[in-house]
Write a structure and sequence with these properties.
The complex is a heterodimer of chains A (about 325) and B (about 270). Chain A is about 45% helix and about 20% strand. In chain A, the strands form two sheets. In chain A, strands 5-6-7-3-8-9 form a six-stranded mixed beta sheet, with helices on both faces. A three-stranded antiparallel beta sheet of chain A has the order 2-1-4, covered by helices on one side. Chain A is globular. Chain A has ten helices and nine strands. In chain A, strand 6, helix 6 and strand 7 form a beta-alpha-beta unit. Chain B is mostly helical and about 270 residues long. Chain B has one domain. Chain B is globular and about 55 Å long. The two termini of chain B are about 25 Å apart. Classes of the chains: A alpha/beta (about 325), B mainly alpha (about 270). Chains A and B meet through helix 1 and helix 3 of A and helix 2, helix 6 and helix 13 of B.
């Protein structure tokens, strides 16, 4: 798995950076624009770097896991590589251009609820870059993989969300490109389908494709990837053998969770004291329990917890 | 410079290379429009037809039309309303060219111009589909046509340029300004009366009683040229004066260039926003 048939870089991220507004909404109303002038974005002027100073090189046939908590820049990184976002700093170079990339992002994008499943497969496969001839050759395979043969003439909107995801995954993975970006899609569908997805992932790796995988499941990442890239707050923290990087991520996440737990304990204590002082009128405990979730560290803790849970579930 | 020549050239080349995707998107739009209802085609022509009937009633039976339009008024109206429907559909639809397909734009790497081309293209095909109705009325009412009908492709090309200009500005700007779409609906309404749709351009351009500023608006408005070129094929007196046609064409291309600049400037921010 992941052997380099022909070596050489496939992806080079050079000092990559992209900046967002704090609330990720730059959107404003014309009337705000007129009232506040060009610089008066709502919610203040604050911006943050979703990614910055990220540099790495990925060679042909490598399988790399992108590791990090929610909102730390993993998906943004995949978007920059696939060319659907434009960096503010640096560059993301892909050998042969972004048309060599098959992004498994938003797999159900491009499906039209009103049209039948059959029409949708043709359209979506076409949009993802397959020619008519290629679709014709692969149509049966796509249908079979998605287990959708009995619903081919149903309007797409009548499918369940799991079935939609299956069709999407099936279409996207049938697009034959040297680089595959996978963003959390392996968690769609039921268990049987998940296993099929794993097999297809292994096939892709076996064909010597370059794969970038974003997943919260340590088990999944370790199963497919030899190398890990750890992102925290948009910075590249670690890049190396996957087990080492995962250990480091786990340590960080545990530490955050521990910080969070002690903060929670402190708040509970404070609340109890307050309640005792006031004669126990207010349901402080609920408030105290709810509040720390909103702290920035809560995300890390939740991730660590989910990672552990999934690790238990998967094997 | 945003419009560096090499950049423009490279983008045009990718667009040409990926043109298949444009056809796919347009045919998808048409499929959605026509497949789910057997009345699909009727819906395309129903609106301009009923509106034409209403305007015909109002301006033939209630208000005296005078010399503002030629006879038969119904054909005259359709010659203005069918192209106008294309224009108004693009102006009111282009705010959603990008935001309406957010998931696709986020996951498929095609030149982003394609989403705008697709809006103008889909509406163009619908316009072409509506032409047989016009021809039917021309035959029934024996209006005939003159050789200027050969100018139609030119008129359509100019319409493309104008509408692309509008759409390239509106599509990204409306992602950044969420209430823009509503403004556009009002804009379309105003433009409908401020363009020679219900009446002929000749009347306005020759008038002695109209404020010169407003007259200049008609003179430089590319829609005046486009609509008059369409009408000229049946009503020769409606053909635009050469000066008007030149001015309209200049404005249309200026719009397109501004549109391309705006589109490229906003592109990185738009992609973050959707």
């Amino acid at each position: 798995m992941g052997r380099a048939s022909q070596s050489g870089p496939m992806i080079i991220a050079d000092d990559l950076g992209i900046q967002f507004h704090v609330n990720r909404r730059r959107r404003m109303k014309v009337r705000e624009f007129l009232a506040k002038g060009k610089t008066g974005a709502p919610g203040g002027q604050e911006e943050f770097w979703a990614l910055r100073n990220v540099s790495f090189q990925i060679d042909r046939g490598e399988a790399v896991g992108i590791i990090g908590g929610n909102g730390h820049g993993k998906s943004t990184l995949l978007r920059l590589i696939s060319g659907v976002m434009i960096p503010d700093e640096g560059s993301a170079w892909v050998k042969g251009g972004s048309s060599k990339v098959a992004p498994l992002i938003e797999v159900t994008g491009g499906f039209e609820g009103e049209l039948t499943v059959r029409d949708n497969i043709w359209l979506a496969a076409g949009l993802k870059g397959l020619s008519r001839k290629q679709i014709g050759a692969k149509f049966d395979e796509i249908v079979e993989f998605a287990e959708i043969a009995h619903r081919l003439d149903t309007p797409f909107r009548h499918l369940s969300s799991g079935m939609k995801a299956k069709v999407g995954f099936s279409v996207v993975t049938s697009v034959d490109r040297p680089i595959v970006l996978v963003d959390e899609v392996l968690s769609v569908g039921d268990r049987a389908f998940k296993n099929k997805c794993f097999i297809r992932m292994e096939e892709l790796l076996g064909q010597g494709k370059t794969v970038l995988l974003v997943s919260h499941s340590a088990v999944q990442v370790e199963r497919f990837c030899k190398r890990g890239i750890y992102l925290r707050d948009g910075r590249l923290i670690d890049d190396g053998p996957v087990s080492e990087v995962l250990t480091r991520y786990g340590r960080d996440a545990d530490k955050l969770a521990e910080d969070d737990r002690s903060a929670l304990r402190a708040r509970r204590r404070a609340a109890r004291m307050l309640r005792n002082g006031r004669g126990g009128e207010e349901p402080d405990d609920e408030i105290a329990l709810g509040a720390p979730r909103r702290r920035p560290t809560a995300a890390g803790a939740a991730d660590a917890e989910r990672a552990r849970r999934e690790a238990d579930l998967d094997d | 410079m945003v419009l560096a020549r090499t950049e423009t050239w490279a983008r045009t080349r990718t667009l040409i290379a990926r043109r298949r995707i444009l056809w796919l998107l347009i045919s998808r739009d048409l499929k959605v429009k026509y497949s789910d209802s057997t009345l699909g085609y009727v819906w395309t022509v129903l609106e301009p037809l009923t509106m034409a009937a209403v305007y015909w009633f109002v301006f033939s039976r209630i208000f005296p039309r005078g010399t503002a339009a030629s006879e038969p008024y119904l054909v005259f109206l359709l010659l203005g309303m069918l192209p106008w429907q294309w224009a108004s559909a693009v102006i009111s639809g282009s705010p959603r060219s990008i935001s309406g397909e957010a998931r696709l734009v986020r996951s498929v790497d095609v030149p982003r111009e394609i989403w705008v081309l697709r809006t103008v293209g889909s509406k163009f095909v619908e316009f072409l589909f509506s032409l047989p109705v016009l021809f039917a009325f021309m035959i029934i009412l024996h209006t005939g046509a003159n050789w200027y009908i050969l100018m139609w492709p030119l008129a359509m090309a100019l319409m493309w340029v104008t509408l692309l200009g509008f759409a390239f500005i509106l599509a990204p700007v409306c992602v950044m300004f969420s209430d823009m779409e509503r403004l556009m609906r009002i804009m379309v309404r105003i433009l409908f009366y401020m363009c020679p749709v219900l009446y002929g351009s000749e009347k306005v351009l020759q008038s002695k009683h109209i404020n010169p500023v407003i007259k200049a608006f008609y003179e430089y408005n590319p829609f005046t040229t486009v609509l008059s070129m369409f009408r000229g094929a049946v009503f020769r007196n409606e053909l635009p004066p050469v000066s008007t046609a030149v001015h309209g064409t200049i404005v249309a291309f200026a719009l397109l260039i501004i549109g391309l600049v705006v589109f490229r400037r906003l592109e990185p921010d738009v992609l973050k926003e959707i």
